[in-house]
Amino acid sequence: xxxxxxxxxxxxxxxxxxxxxxxxxxxxxxxxxxxxxxxxxxxxxxxxxxxxxxxxxxxxxxxxxxxxxxxxxxxxxxxxxxxxxxxxxxxxxxxxxxxxxxxxxxxxxxxxxxxxxxxxxxxxxxxxxxxxxxxxxxxxxxxxxxxxxxxxxxxxxxxxxxxxxxxxxxxxxxxxxxxxxxxxxxxxxxxxxxxxxxxxxxxxxxxxxxxxxxxxxxxxxxxxxxxxxxxxxxxxxxxxxxxxxxxxxxxxxxxxxxxxxxxxxxxxxxxxxxxxxxxxxxxxxxxxxxxxxxxxxxxxxxxxxxxxxxxxxxxxxxxxxxxxxxxxxxxxxxxxxxxxxxxxxxxxxxxxxxxxxxxxxxxxxxxxxxxxxxxxxxxxxxxxxxxxxxxxxxxxxxxxxxxxxxxxxxxxxxxxxxxxxxxxxxxxxxxxxxxxxxxxxxxxxxxxxxxxxxxxxxxxxxxxxxxxxxxxxxxxxxxxxxxxxxxxxxxxxxxxxxxxxxxxxxxxxxxxxxxxxxx
Length: 519
Prior knowledge:
Elements: H1 2-8, E1 36-39, E2 42-45, H2 46-57, E3 60-63, E4 73-76, E5 79-82, H3 83-91, E6 97-101, E7 104-108, E8 127-136, E9 147-150, E10 156-158, E11 164-170, E12 177-181, E13 188-191, H4 192-195, E14 199-204, H5 221-230, H6 232-235, E15 241-253, E16 256-269, E17 280-290, H7 305-311, E18 330-340, E19 343-352, E20 361-368, E21 374-381, E22 401-416, E23 423-438, E24 445-459, H8 500-518
Parallel strand pairs: 3-7, 8-14
Antiparallel strand pairs: 1-5, 2-4, 6-7, 8-11, 9-10, 9-12, 12-13, 15-16, 15-24, 16-17, 18-19, 19-20, 20-21, 21-22, 22-23, 23-24
């Protein structure tokens, strides 16, 4: 069963929102900007001092780094200040326009420098684009694969490896709220209208579970898994759904992106009583970038990336490590309790038993404590035996190359459309890393294949199979698939923003096309 699964899945402008921890007790009817807070003497960046103001006042900041420089060093003396005065002292900008909307404080250029602007929209004028990034409040590190979605809708995306996001919002939902969430963090919500025209940098606060918050009890990891499987029928839809997804796959050699394909897909997803063979795919948009250079002697291609995303919907086709009759091959443990959207999540680890030498899996299951639904799974081929699985991931290779598998790691997450709805597949990511050595050479180089898919919209009404003539074969080499592109490539589709190295690859490739056209 293990081998069966392995074969089948073979510089932007920043803005800031400081997270509030407490409100002052003397709010009363005082206008928000006249409320007083007490600050200790402090020196540091504008970012750090505004974070302290946010902690004292309970207000969240939204501003563009073209207006306020996060990294500039500044100071403030110990004392009591109104919010207005504290902000102007820290920013060193007495003319700054400060507006309060709900629990947010918006910092803008002076009115004379900030004439009214029409709503920021996508090209078709029936959508609004909001964008920005998420980072950890305490460490400053990017929050990767966080969910960004419109509340009470199926529209959303995830952050990339730099914590960046871009969300296209239909104008009919312009007054909706957007939620930012990730396992282990306090979720944050704000109105879409507040973010239009901004490039926001939200700080998410890590959520630590104290023993006083939970019922002290011994959690049996196998019982948690069995409960999850027993409730699979109620936690996952039994009827088909239509998914609009963004798909990306890439190949890096010597840490340079040499091949990149991106697409918008429509997927007919059968209910969870059926296997993945009944899922159909239609290709809506595609872009392919290649950066093969003269002298490159390794020309790798990825096969079955889209098919792997379908198969990795593990709640449809259960892998051996989450079937309760496989206890003899795996050890299970309850590792932690975390939160997502204010819900408790039990972290169950699994790892093959020490006496088993074949390459099996190791990873963690994140199971909702109340509904017993799988929120996320992170797993990989056991690093201690990963090299033994090399041939399972290679279709064919040149005789002068030696490839050794160094990593095969996956992330799969599920989300409900609203608190009481079934869970749908949300995000899939796979990373396959080899070391490649040419015959007669002493040194090897890394070769990294990766693929990911995020569900950007889920439709559950009047869902019909994709006509056979319009289906895309998900097992083929996607980079070789022929599909005409458009001038306005993504239109109003939601995507995962490319990281800096992917932007470089795309820009470099497009520049080469322009040069060739001029020649």
